[in-house]
Amino acid sequence: MTLIHPDQPLTDASTPELLSSLLRDWHARAWVSGTGGGICGPTEDGNLFLAPTGVHKELVRPEDFFVVSPLDGHVVRQPATSGLRPSECNTIFGLIVRERGARSVAHSHALAAVLAADLADGADHLEIAGLEMLKGIRGLTNLDVHRVPVVDNTPREPELVAGLARALGDPRNAGAFAVLVRDHGAYIWGDDVWEAKRHVEVYHFLFEATVARHARRSKEGQR
Amino acid sequence: MTLIHPDQPLTDASTPELLSSLLRDWHARAWVSGTGGGICGPTEDGNLFLAPTGVHKELVRPEDFFVVSPLDGHVVRQPATSGLRPSECNTIFGLIVRERGARSVAHSHALAAVLAADLADGADHLEIAGLEMLKGIRGLTNLDVHRVPVVDNTPREPELVAGLARALGDPRNAGAFAVLVRDHGAYIWGDDVWEAKRHVEVYHFLFEATVARHARRSKEGQR
Amino acid sequence: MTLIHPDQPLTDASTPELLSSLLRDWHARAWVSGTGGGICGPTEDGNLFLAPTGVHKELVRPEDFFVVSPLDGHVVRQPATSGLRPSECNTIFGLIVRERGARSVAHSHALAAVLAADLADGADHLEIAGLEMLKGIRGLTNLDVHRVPVVDNTPREPELVAGLARALGDPRNAGAFAVLVRDHGAYIWGDDVWEAKRHVEVYHFLFEATVARHARRSKEGQR
Amino acid sequence: MTLIHPDQPLTDASTPELLSSLLRDWHARAWVSGTGGGICGPTEDGNLFLAPTGVHKELVRPEDFFVVSPLDGHVVRQPATSGLRPSECNTIFGLIVRERGARSVAHSHALAAVLAADLADGADHLEIAGLEMLKGIRGLTNLDVHRVPVVDNTPREPELVAGLARALGDPRNAGAFAVLVRDHGAYIWGDDVWEAKRHVEVYHFLFEATVARHARRSKEGQR
């Protein structure tokens, strides 16, 4: 998928290449599609590389990334490619970076995320338990009952900020590196791009496993 | 998937390359297979590049495309490759181009499209709602209830024209960029090849999500 | 997937390359895996290129194919690679070539084929109907009810010959280009490698669609 | 997937390349993800190439493998890449190598393995029957009822050793080349890397097929 290996320190040259290759891999898995989804990762001086909006994410090249400030989202550097606008995720990514000390955030439009949020019905969180893959989330053991906040969708992504801020501020969600957005998808983050990648893969597994197990229990009338 | 990026204007040289790469991607996803499915996109002078019929669509090369008129489907230019015939979608693609001002149309044989049409039972449309990905359809918000027309299949694709013309002429379908054909698949279009690609990915997501949600509700006896 | 296009006549040089590329594609789709599955295609002088047995099919190279006689399966030419034995499908492929005039036969171990055979319960065939993709089978329209014979599995593939011969000899199966083997998979063929490829893709779609529709009807209690 | 063919004897140069290519293929299939999963294979002098822990497994390069002793897991040779630690599977892989004479072991985190272990409920094994693909397991026919041991998960992988040792020591499990770990995945092995690869593909098929058939029977109320 990528020629960049985790033992190579990520630089302002290699980070956009890695972000670009992750978008290609996620598009192949249908976690981002139809120009939906997004990603950001850190510059060496503490800003964020941010993918553009409204473009097919698997075609985003290293030179297409904006540099934005996580403090207020202002554009620090335009991409080499003209005619692009920064991702609508800008505000939400900045919020997560500030509130959680994250340095890389992904936005997934995967069907498994939508179906996992459905399982919460009207509740403000989904509990995930009984899976070894929980250990792939920083700080968790496979014995934990992991609480993933679920927030309501809103007409525009910047308006999601209030709901996300509430979820991130709730101390019961302190262990979560993801927020599910009902009918929409998930925001998933990590301390660096490699941890964000790991969390993205782990949470998608957790969502799929929880949905599949729920379906089996429903079929067998054990609810 | 392709070396063509959305910031490069599509020309008569690059459009067939893009159409060819989309067919390869869609074959990998089983949206076109067994020589089924098809695609067209605009020439610079207002005609259509049209894939040939009866060939494995993922193997269609740029030099295999016909140029046809959207007005009456007549062949303006034969492909460099001999022995090919224009796609049976010719008449339907032309209809959609004329009726909707579309400039690129795809024909999907995806299982998800067949199963989504099944959900309509005998009705003439399927309603899709409660999904952020609706915003991937031009003009829609995630609050819309999106009406996708469903028409009956016919023995030959040119005969579908009457059903499709009726669906396209129904003002209640004015917001749709897709028509589902029962037992068959879907026609999906856009203002240019990039929008058609986006709509293809978005509608397949919407079909899969609607089918998966319906299955869950059936299992839980909430119908 | 392959650099060979349908407009190039297949030769003794290109046929094994095409067969090899099909095995790679089918392994990626999990239609052949775990060394299971197989393929044959015609030599220019009326014999068959046959993949070796007991090897990972996606790694079979052009130089690994045997040439065997469809009349009695005897090896006409050993592959350049030493230490290989011809596929256990040899006898069955020869039977299908002789009985049906096929020139290329594939053997699938796809889960969808196993689940489709399950739907027949104890019966000797499965009926497939109501799908446009039926038109991808030579001679069929989308209005046909297509009868696919289902035979019982046996401990070894050569012993399947009797069951397959009975199925192929039954005039009610005259329109079938596939035989399902219970608990096992399917044999699928065509007049040449391109038709075999088309039939392989179409039958897998038909199996998946029939299984998915049956599951929906079961859930809704409409059986 | 790999340029290494089964007719080439595996050496200390080619074995890590093959192991690396298998991890890439399995990541594409979501059998290893989120840095989970693992693999080992034999050195020419009877030790084991072992993947590192905590890294994205599809990015493990040939130079990233440790050489460890299967007797006690001690590191015989560090990888060329600095900063790596040997996989947590070390103890378990060594146990399987010693108890079963295996020379290559894989650790899968596939959802199908988790769902297959679920089917065992509290029992210590899962029975798999009625599938031709059983013949892909060394020593089995398609008529066998194959017993796959299922052990409980533990907080850390080295602690799994006791449960696995018990399962491997149970004579009723003598025919198994896999152990399912509840909520976790599976360990799957073979006499060499090629057999381990075959067993990995075959067991994943068996798990998927058994889960799919169970779901169908549940839906139809035949339990």
Structural summary, described in words:
- The structure is a homotetramer.
- Chain A is α+β, with helices and mostly antiparallel strands and about 220 residues long.
- The first copy, chain A, has five helices and nine strands.
- Chain A has helices at about 15-30, 90-100, 110-120, 160-170, 195-220; strands spanning about 40, 50, 65-70, 75, 105-110, 125-130, 145-150, 180, 185-190.
- The longest helix of chain A is centred in the last third of the chain and has 27 residues, at about 195-220.
- The first copy, chain A, is globular, with a radius of gyration of 17 Å.
- Chain A starts with 13 loop residues before the first helix and ends with a helix.
- At the A-B interface, α3 and α5 of A face α5 of B.
